[in-house]
């Protein structure tokens, strides 16, 4: 996979290019600071030190995948799979919103060391993993940002 990121000042957006899977467009100016090879997440920070993570991968690479499932069911299974992982580590997990018509799940993981809001969704045979991993924004701001990411990608 070829990976690149750039900021377009005229559009006011950052683009992460993931060839052959396409782009992830992020509103605003973000600077990439890390990549997790295991989760395939790309981590970005903005000028107020708000951190986000984004990923876009083929859904059939995940252990919960089944070609018999709808995008909504795959998103639900993905959330449950991740929820089990976090719960085993003592991190409280709450599903905050499930948009079956938009085929994504928004959920929160919280402990003394973690306070992240996630959006897991599936479209066009690709799994989208978006997260706001900072305390700089309220849950409402984080959720609004995640929905915007989903809608423009």
Task: Please explain how this structure is put together.
With 153 residues, this protein is α+β, with helices and mostly antiparallel strands. Helix content is 21%, strand content 46%. The chain contains 2 helices and 10 strands, in the order ββββββαββββα. It has helices at 71-88, 139-152, and strands at residues 2-8, 13-19, 22-27, 31-36, 41-45, 51-58, 92-99, 104-110, 115-123, 126-132. The strands form 2 sheets. It has a 7-stranded antiparallel sheet, with helices on both faces. The protein has a 3-stranded antiparallel sheet with strand order 1-2-3. Strand 2 (13-19) and strand 3 (22-27) form a beta hairpin. The model has no long low-confidence stretch (mean pLDDT 94).
Strand arrangement across the biggest beta sheet: 4-5-6-10-9-8-7
Largest sheet: 7 strands, antiparallel
- Helical residue percent band: 10-25%
State the order of secondary-structure elements, H for helix, E for strand. Answer: EEEEEEHEEEEH
Global shape: globular
Question: Which runs of at least 5 residues are low in confidence (pLDDT < 50)?
Answer: none
Please report the distance between the alpha carbons of the first and last residues. Answer: 19 Å
Let me know the average pLDDT: 94
Beta-strand portion reads over 45%
The structure class reads alpha+beta
Strand tally: 10
